[in-house]
Amino acid sequence: MNKLRNKNDKRKFIKTVVSQSLSHLLREAETTFDTHPLRSKRYIEMAWDLVKRNKLKLSTDQKSKFCRKCLIFWKIGSSLRIFFDRKKNVFFYICNSCNYKRRISNR
Ligand SMILES: [Zn+2]
After folding, report:
1. Structural domains in the chain (count)
2. Which residue range(s) make up the domain with 29?
3. 3 C-alpha vs ligand 1 centroid, how far in Å?
């Protein structure tokens, strides 16, 4: 019983560490985007790799930070366009690099 709890604690600890490095990588991608676009992309690739390997859940904020198709940092006006569909009354994020469309809930 005791052993099991330790195992769970360990897993929780790993998750905390991983999500910390994830937000660190996303931050780095953001700061390097203008000056070193390739390095920025590399950070996103590493972050996405962490997400996949550890089955992490991204926050809505984190999800809107990068394109999950071409793994580029999303910066409004530069790598990202925002499009409003009047008929459906929804916002879309459109990746400038691969045209991936992501629906944004306005609630
Ligand atoms: Zn893209």
Report:
1. 1
2. 2-104
3. 44
